[in-house]
Design goal:
The structure is a homodimer of 204-residue chains.
Chain A lengths: L15 H15 L6 H7 L14 H24 L4 H18 L1 H7 L8 H17 L7 H23 L9 H18 L11
Helix pairs in contact in A: 1-3, 1-5, 3-4, 3-5, 3-6, 4-5, 4-7, 4-8, 7-8
Chain B binds a DNA duplex (30 and 30 nucleotides) through loops.
DNA sequence: GTTTAAAACTACCTATATTAGTTTGTCAAC
DNA sequence: GTTGACAAACTAATATAGGTAGTTTTAAAC
């Protein structure tokens, strides 16, 4: 089977996977708005309309890039968590989450796009993330509902922090590392302390 | 010398404020991508190029809409928190935050755009949010650094949860209310425990 | 070789943002 | 009142981008 190199042959040998990967690279390098059909085609050595043989349109392509981003994020988190558990695992996951978003800010931003309902690859990647965080929380011995809540809470905390950080929502960048660690620690402390309700300020 | 920049225009009563407000309405009704110069102009009873007398371009307009969204969000949070403090205030703020995002999902999404550095109105609205959350945390008696961390953590938690919820990041909608309340409660418990009440879960 | 399906092409259309240059209405000074 | 200044709005036109239609080319199967 002849396998052509990229861009030289009259037949470029593109397929959907290659197009989506190139789109992800383009997003990573030039931002989400830098992803245009024309530029992507140029980078792939092809005319713009040719891409429509592989993708349904720009919107669908962006969704595909989002799915790819979630898959890569899930991979990062899993690699970070392997061989760890409990607090150590949670911190490792949280740091990996933030590191991914900082290294690939535009790809991460692309990730936020709502997926098509019923997208198997998205569901699968999202499920992996839930699973790895859930596993890290194992030592906390939470019931299944509490565990779901905790996974959602942690994911929200990480995503929210990182997202606000990328948008410049926090002022001074120097203290942000500390704030992130502290936020995760506070949440974990809350998990560990659950049961004894705080009641702070309840007298009003 | 004629001074008609403040609210009274010679011809059709259009000024920057009106344009931005109409843009926000359009975003609210038809989504961020539904905001085009042409449609906005049509809605204002004017031709598209006329808008350039009031705004610098679409990007700048979107940033202005973002600022307006943050201002309205800040207003909602302040109204929710008035007369409350401590845990009760935090829950009220968190619920108001989520309610705003659910009632105005596209305006909320527009809010995430990074503002121009040095935008006074944005800084002012962002400062109001920090202030109202910080005031709610008063009974927790945190030091100034811990307080900043806590404000950032809570804001991250709320934003992250709401953002993921809007993106369909969570599966079953029935349990989401509970998860949100639980996430906020867990974080508050973490604040209370770390603040010196019991010290449970703190590793050092 | 012939056939076939996909991949890529050219040509074209539409929508949108934006600019250039012109006209028009309102206000204030004369 | 007349007039002049100036912002507001207009018409016309340009550039870019997404997307479609229909045609050609190529790799590979028969």
């Amino acid at each position: 089977m002849p396998v052509w190199g990229c861009g030289v042959s009259p037949r470029a040998g593109l397929d959907r996977e290659a197009v989506v990967e190139a789109a992800a690279s383009l997003v990573d390098e030039e931002g989400l708005d830098g992803l245009t059909v024309g530029r992507l085609a140029e980078r792939l050595g092809v005319r713009a309309p040719s891409l429509y043989n592989h993708i349904a349109g720009l919107e669908e392509l962006k969704r595909a890039v989002a799915v790819l981003g979630v898959e890569r994020l899930a991979g990062s988190l899993m690699r970070a968590a392997v061989g760890k558990s409990g607090e150590q695992a949670v911190f490792a996951i949280a740091d990996a989450y933030r590191a991914f978003a900082r290294e690939h800010p535009d790809l991460y931003a692309a990730t936020l796009r709502a997926p098509e309902p019923g997208d198997g690859r998205y569901s699968s990647a999202a499920g992996e993330i839930l699973e790895v965080v859930g596993a890290a929380l194992e030592p906390y011995r939470l019931g299944s509902e509490d565990r779901l809540d905790a996974v959602r809470g942690l994911r929200s905390l990480c995503h929210g922090f990182v997202s606000l950080e990328l948008c410049g929502g926090f002022g001074m960048p120097r203290e942000v590392d500390r704030s992130f660690e502290q936020a995760v620690r506070t949440y974990l402390t809350g998990l560990a302390c659950a049961g004894g309700e705080s009641g702070v300020g309840k007298s009003d």
